[in-house]
């Protein structure tokens, strides 16, 4: 897709995506306009060949793909600003703004504008995002193009929009859940004799290895667990002790509560 792209509100997500698109040869830096009120923060990107601007309307006029990446409280102002120059026949609008539905964006920009809602997580900063995507009116071609766009910064799954709050709990909040599990493992490592820095390094790499086993082998966690557990062995003893203390059930309950909380927050916002 050799289209010109405008990223409106170039914070962490927008800048990470811009870098990913260029690194993956999906787009040239000169075809991407980054907007921000204070463009002094974008000087390194300007030096790398990106266009930088504090004029949202002009950036939209010059683009075919418009990525909305402002803070939720800034969105209505930005939509009002760009509405006069949005052309449904020309523009595809992508929103990465938490809790804002495709319908809410179309309500401001017009019913015929194609809108795709995208939710990356913080691992987008290292090109390892789990990105969830939904739309109720985008063409199959645009869905495919946006999937490839966000695959430059991680993995993508298309879901129904009513599952976006659930995806927030599993993928966005989930980063914190897995980090807390790694921290707990490293604290256990200190208890059994390792220095804190050693224990953390060992826990982090072990967690990464576990995740990569599933990704590369395409296997189920239990089949990989079976390879580590032997009869009357130390692994099964540790697993069972954790389960007796509610390891799996507490994680499941935490995800369910986060999803409930996210849904309530979004309802109040919207």
From TrEMBL:
Keywords: Amino-acid biosynthesis, Cytoplasm, NADP, Oxidoreductase, Proline biosynthesis. This is Pyrroline-5-carboxylate reductase. Residues 161-262 form the Pyrroline-5-carboxylate reductase dimerisation domain. Pfam families: F420_oxidored (PF03807), P5CR_dimer (PF14748). GO terms for biological process: L-proline biosynthetic process. Its main location: cytoplasm. It comes from Pedobacter rhizosphaerae. NADPH binds at residue 56. The keyword Cytoplasm applies. The gene is proC. SUPFAM superfamilies: 6-phosphogluconate dehydrogenase C-terminal domain-like (SSF48179), NAD(P)-binding Rossmann-fold domains (SSF51735). Catalyzes the reduction of 1-pyrroline-5-carboxylate (PCA) to L-proline. The keyword Amino-acid biosynthesis applies. Belongs to the pyrroline-5-carboxylate reductase family. GO terms for cellular component: cytoplasm. It is found in: Cytoplasm. It is an enzyme of class 1 (oxidoreductase).
């Amino acid at each position: 897709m050799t289209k010109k792209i405008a990223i409106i509100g170039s914070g962490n997500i927008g800048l990470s995506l811009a870098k990913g698109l260029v690194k993956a040869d999906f787009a040239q830096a000169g075809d991407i306009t980054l907007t921000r009120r204070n463009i002094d923060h974008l000087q390194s990107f300007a030096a790398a060949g990106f266009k930088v601007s504090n004029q949202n309307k002009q950036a939209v006029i010059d683009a075919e793909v418009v990525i909305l990446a402002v803070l939720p409280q800034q969105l209505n102002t930005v939509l009002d600003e760009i509405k006069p120059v949005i052309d449904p026949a020309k523009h595809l609008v992508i929103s990465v703004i938490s809790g804002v539905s495709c319908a809410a964006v179309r309500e401001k920009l017009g019913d015929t504008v194609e809108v795709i809602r995208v939710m990356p997580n913080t691992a987008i900063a290292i090109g390892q995002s789990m990105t969830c995507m939904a739309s109720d009116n985008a063409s199959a071609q645009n869905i495919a193009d946006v999937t490839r766009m966000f695959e430059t910064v991680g993995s993508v799954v298309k879901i129904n929009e009513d599952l976006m709050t659930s995806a927030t709990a599993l993928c966005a909040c989930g980063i914190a859940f897995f980090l807390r599990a790694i921290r707990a493992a490293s604290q256990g490592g200190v208890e059994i004799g390792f220095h804190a820095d050693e224990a953390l390094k060992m826990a982090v790499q072990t967690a990464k290895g576990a995740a990569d086993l599933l990704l590369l082998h395409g296997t189920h966690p239990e089949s990989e667990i079976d390879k580590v557990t032997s009869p009357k062995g130390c692994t099964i003893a540790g697993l069972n002790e954790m389960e007796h203390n509610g390891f799996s059930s507490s994680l499941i309950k935490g995800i369910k509560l986060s999803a409930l909380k996210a849904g309530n927050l979004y309802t109040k916002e919207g």
